[in-house]
Description:
It holds the Pfam family Ank_2. ANK repeats lie at residues 19-51, 52-84, 85-112. This is Ankyrin repeat protein. Keywords: ANK repeat. This protein is mainly alpha-helical. It has a single domain, classed as Serine Threonine Protein Phosphatase 5, Tetratricopeptide repeat (Alpha Horseshoe). The protein contains seven helices and no strands. Helix 2 (23-29) runs antiparallel to helix 3 (33-41) and helix 2 (23-29) runs parallel beside helix 4 (56-63). It starts with a helix and ends in a 5-residue tail after the last helix.
Amino acid sequence: MVAFLLAHGADPNVRGAAAGNPPTHVASCYGHEAVVEVLLNNGADVNSQCQWGDTALHSAASQGHREIVALLLAHGADVTIKANSSATPLDMATQAGHTETIEMLAERDANV
């Protein structure tokens, strides 16, 4: 469905009305890897920030979605972006105790 909408002109960077989250954030938070990939392959900004300053990488890291973290990193996600709370994706993964995600981000020199 997402690919269909994008093929017919949908904006991969449109923000939701309620919280202003880009689709990559929502898909990353809920573990929808295929949707994240389609969005990124169709021009979604991998480093877009929501009203709280989080990126899709923050969302995926906080939920421990390793595959999505890897996908976002492969598309150039910036591991150093800080949310309004000053938290980096590594901070979010650490707070949630997602060891494998922490290791992935640390390998990218995410301010360890």
